[in-house]
Design brief:
mainly alpha, single chain, 3-stranded parallel sheet, 3 strands
Length: 172
């Protein structure tokens, strides 16, 4: 009975080890640096230029508001001694309201720039992802890891699929 149990355990161990070896040999892992790939795409340059132009426009509006704020503060400081209480309170409220509008504008502008960037870059990201998916299927990769995300710490046994994806995207 003991020999039968040992035989079954030995057979199970052999099957486990051979199955593990087979599973390992069928894994095909590739890697890519999507940030470098995106930087090579002409669409990314165009999108980045549009985001920069949009952000510059918002920044100019912000500077105009800041100049208005500085002007009101200087006017208030130079005339505070001659103002009645009602005028002083009105000017203080104007300055406070303008400061709040500037803060709200800044927060909104930051969100708008991020939204614009997402809107312009999403089609490019989708194009890269589709090319990576196509390369993965065409060349039978089990996994393609993105080393630009800092998650992959070691990838010596993988293939750099960047040239294949560049070819798929028509990049040189």
């Amino acid at each position: 009975m003991k020999t039968v149990k040992k035989g079954i355990l030995l057979l199970a161990a052999i099957l486990f080890i051979s199955g593990f070896g087979y599973a390992q040999s069928s894994l095909k892992i590739g890697y890519i640096n999507s940030n470098k790939l995106m930087a090579m795409m002409p669409e990314a340059d165009s999108a980045q230029a549009q985001v920069k132009k949009y952000a510059t426009g918002l920044q100019k509006q912000m500077q105009t508001m800041a100049q208005e704020y500085q002007s009101k503060v200087q006017d208030y400081q130079s005339n505070v001694g001659t103002m009645s209480d009602l005028i002083r309170q009105t000017k203080e409220k104007e300055i406070s309201d303008l400061q709040q509008r500037i803060q709200a504008f800044q927060a909104s502008a930051d969100q708008d720039v991020q939204k614009k960037q997402q809107e312009l870059f999403q089609p490019i990201i989708d194009k890269v992802k589709n090319a990576i998916d196509a390369v993965g299927k065409e060349y039978h990769y089990t996994y393609i890891l993105d080393v630009s995300q800092g998650i992959v710490l070691f990838y010596a046994n993988g293939d750099d699929v960047t040239p294949l994806v560049k070819k798929k995207l028509g990049l040189k």
